[in-house]
Amino acid sequence: MYKKLTAIFMSKSMKQSYLVKKHLPKHIKKGHQILFSRQDLSVRETDMFALMIAQMTPEDWKKSTPVYEFHASQISKWLSIKHKHIGSNLSPVAKRLSERKVGVKTVTPNGQEEFDYIPFFKRLTYKNSKLLMVPNDELRSEYIEYKKGFALINTQNFLNLKKEYSKRLYELLSRFKTSGTIMKIQKIEDLKGLFGILDEKGKLKQDKQSFKKNSVFMKRCIRDSIKEISENSMTKKEILFLESKDGHLGYQIFKNSKKTSGIEFLYRWIGKDFGIEINIKDAQKNIKEMEIKRLKNKQRLTVEELKLLANSYYVINRSDIALEVEQGIERRLKDQNKNLKSIESEEMDMFLSKLQFLKKASGNPDY
């Protein structure tokens, strides 16, 4: 019989069991509250935290606080660390991460934003080739409640990124994958909080003083992160950064006087829906069928077919053609809107004409 429980953690007051899947879950499901919080984690700390969140489900919390235990062999495989270096790598990381706090945003009755800083973990240790992780009960709702939405983050791609700010940007953008959703314009100060640059008082941390200049923040947190995500062999296949009218790849700057005040990220996820991935073989088949239908058979493709065609071109790394198709989709939708407005206008004109007749017939009573 396949064992779902990999180990059992004993405490003085209770016997707790915990689920750690044999294989690394495909996605990390992270709730909006914990995602859009203030956190400052190193690359290794981020990866270690991600291992726990990838395993976590709401069911784990039904009876008591869940406990997660990872064996050195799992960590070695999933984080690409040589087995003999696991201890020297993870022991100091586990110690630091056990002391980290997350700044959870709250809004007061009068509309003011505040941040409540709470430790991520109740207990976190690495001993005897095992990583033991016990999440903090105070963050239960932030960990497993998804009423305000959630990010579905590709686990392997997330772990494959090498820089902490790239990982942070990647998971933030993962919150907005479905059509019609996109990250709103972000204030620079809010982004500095999200990227862990600010302390609990909202001031620059002592070890982050170089970020005082927005130009430093823009380079290290934004431009360098977009560069890595767009060039990484795995993430470049699922997200496309667009160029702004000012020539910036992946973002548009908004200024207050001469000072940068906000950023809008310009990007598109490749794939019709965030839960559906098109492989290269299917993409090539889609392109052949729809281009023959369009060019040889002279049949006009529907908007849904054009979306699938664009996504297929993205998959085979022909973003140049994909963008042409998407421009065609935009023109089609604009024409449809114009036609709809024209029809609605004609209908209203007809009604207003009848209205004059009704007024006369009814004696035109006062409103």
UniProtKB/TrEMBL annotation:
Keyword Magnesium: no
Molecular function, one GO term: DNA-directed DNA polymerase activity
GO biological process annotation, one example: DNA replication initiation
InterPro entries for this protein: Initiator_Rep_WH1, WH-like_DNA-bd_sf, WH_DNA-bd_sf
Domain Initiator Rep protein WH1 residue range list: 28-174
Cell wall biogenesis/degradation keyword on record: no
Keywords in alphabetical order: Plasmid
Pfam families: Rep3_N (PF01051)
Record family assignment: Belongs to the initiator RepB protein family.
Name of the molecule in the record: Initiator replication protein
Organism listed in the record: Candidatus Photodesmus katoptron Akat1
